[in-house]
């Protein structure tokens, strides 16, 4: 009887194992950091209790096979996260941040609950594995997927559901780390869990691509405008989650999961080391780059994208949506090479070529590893390229080129540029109630 109950409530597959491994690793890293970081704090022991409960609830979430169990674990996990955001309940800004996050997660929970209700009403199944094996999409199932998408967007801080994330930075650094490296990935997991249904709707996949590109571009733009490290990292998370949505919309769900893994580990490191960011040595970008340095960077970008395609098992100039990943690898490798090449492009080119080639091999190899591990789930299904994919790539490329070359030395910028800057800066600000404007307003007890 116990075995039957467990089998009806849980389903541990390769997606679950991947997410459980990520959550466990991030939890150990954050706990180890907090063991020293929170020494002497009045809520020291309570933090580890809340953290253990949060990790346990996420483990339930990613292994659940019953719709109701997944919904309950989803709500409990977000409730525990809100409690950690309001770590110092007497601190007005922290309380306001927690309330804002609660409203956001409430919207997401309603969307997920409505979607699950439609799944059950349409299929008569409570098992997620049974639901995702439906051979065709009825209008009710399509509506359920849209509601599920809204729930994923609220969880992963996808525009326009992003403000809770930008407003939660007054929580302790370990909380920010577990939030940006762990719970924020819930939206990507939700899309991957129901991927077999999403793959039946090319229109919905295209909508996810458009939403993802918008979030990625806004997050990246806003990141460049931020005056402090943690706010910059929050905008970066928004941009990275947007690109993860793009990969889901491309039909490349294992690549999206690989992105979640890399982003989770890297973002945890960035938050846990954010206190020493002011001491780091910075490379002078010296933009705009010289023509020779720019051309050399493009050559390195080609090398990086080619090695990425080879190590990830993809065609370099594919006619499907894998082409989008290859172009993004090209832009990333080119940007990676540019600061190295600016001083002496010809002398630095051989070593930079090797570096970008290794960069592509490592990242492509990680995508291929996750794809191989998740191959039995058949979630890697590239879609046909369409105008939205091309438009997204062109916008991304133009944004990168603008960042490199549209820098004027004149003291006064055009009015449209100043207005655009102020508009973007205002849009990227946290809720005013979550900002502590005077040091005497901090509550340490």
Features:
445 residues; mainly alpha; 2 domains; 71% helix; 0% strand; globular
Report what the structure shows.
The structure is a single chain. By secondary structure, this protein is mainly alpha-helical. It folds into 2 domains: 12-274, no CATH class; 291-427, no CATH class. It is built from 19 helices and no strands. The chain has helices at residues 2-9, 14-37, 44-63, 67-85, 92-123, 128-131, 139-155, 163-166, 173-181, 186-193, 195-198, 202-223, 229-249, 253-272, 291-311, 322-341, 345-373, 387-405, 415-427. It is globular and about 60 Å long. The N and C termini lie far apart (49 Å). The model has no long low-confidence stretch (mean pLDDT 84).
Instruction: Give average pLDDT, whole number.
Output: 84
The total domain count is 2
Which stretches of 5+ consecutive residues score pLDDT under 50?
Answer: none
What is the number of strand segments?
A: 0
Helical fraction equals: over 70%
What is the percentage of strand-forming residues? under 5%
Helices, by number, come to 19
Major sheet size, sense and barrel closure: none
Question: What is the structural class?
Answer: mainly alpha
- From the N-terminal CA to the C-terminal CA, the straight-line distance is 49 Å
Shape: globular
Could you tell me the radius of gyration in angstroms?
Answer: 22 Å
Q: Which H/E pattern describes the elements?
A: HHHHHHHHHHHHHHHHHHH
Membrane topology: Multi-pass membrane protein
Protein name: Proton-conducting membrane transporter
Subcellular location: Endomembrane system; Membrane
Main location: membrane
């Amino acid at each position: 009887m116990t075995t039957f109950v467990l089998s009806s409530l849980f389903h541990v597959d390769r997606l679950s194992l991947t997410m459980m491994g990520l959550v466990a690793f991030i939890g150990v890293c954050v706990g180890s950091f907090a063991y020293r970081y929170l020494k002497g704090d009045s809520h020291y022991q309570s933090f580890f209790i809340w953290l253990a409960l949060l990790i346990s609830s996420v483990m339930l979430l990613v292994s659940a096979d019953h719709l109701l169990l997944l919904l309950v674990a989803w709500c409990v996990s977000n409730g525990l996260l809100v409690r950690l955001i309001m770590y110092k309940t007497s601190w007005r800004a922290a309380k306001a941040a927690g309330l804002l996050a609660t409203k956001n997660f409430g919207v997401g929970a309603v969307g997920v609950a409505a979607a699950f209700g439609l799944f059950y009403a349409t299929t008569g199944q409570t098992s997620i594995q049974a639901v995702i094996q439906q051979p065709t999409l009825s209008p009710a199932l399509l509506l359920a997927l849209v509601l599920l998408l809204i729930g994923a967007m609220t969880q992963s801080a996808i525009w326009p559901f992003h403000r809770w994330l930008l407003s939660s930075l007054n929580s302790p650094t370990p909380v920010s780390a577990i939030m940006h490296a762990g719970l924020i990935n819930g939206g990507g997991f939700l899309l991957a869990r129901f991927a077999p249904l999403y793959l039946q709707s090319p229109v919905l996949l295209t909508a996810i691509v458009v939403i993802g590109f918008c979030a990625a571009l806004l997050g990246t733009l806003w990141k460049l405008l931020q005056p402090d490290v943690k706010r910059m990292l929050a905008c970066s998370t928004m941009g990275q989650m947007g690109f993860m949505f793009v990969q889901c919309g491309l039909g490349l769900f294992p690549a999206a999961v690989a992105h979640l893994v890399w982003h989770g580990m890297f973002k945890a490191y960035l938050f846990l080391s954010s206190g020493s960011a002011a001491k780091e040595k910075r490379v002078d970008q010296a933009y705009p780059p010289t023509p020779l340095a720019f051309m050399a960077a493009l050559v390195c970008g080609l090398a990086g994208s080619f090695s990425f395609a080879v190590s990830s098992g993809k065609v370099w100039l594919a006619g499907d949506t894998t082409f989008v990943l290859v172009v993004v690898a090209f832009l990333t490798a080119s940007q990676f090479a540019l600061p190295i090449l600016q001083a002496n492009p010809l002398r630095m080119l051989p070593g930079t070529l090797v570096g970008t080639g290794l960069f592509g091999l490592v990242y492509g190899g990680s995508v291929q590893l996750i794809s191989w591990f998740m191959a039995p789930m058949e979630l890697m299904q590239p879609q046909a390229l369409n105008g939205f994919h091309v438009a997204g790539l062109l916008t991304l490329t133009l944004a990168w080129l603008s960042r490199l070359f549209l820098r004027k030395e004149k003291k006064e910028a055009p009015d449209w540029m100043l207005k655009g800057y102020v508009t973007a800066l205002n849009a990227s600000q946290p809720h005013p109630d979550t900002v502590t404007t005077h040091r005497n307003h901090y509550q340490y007890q």
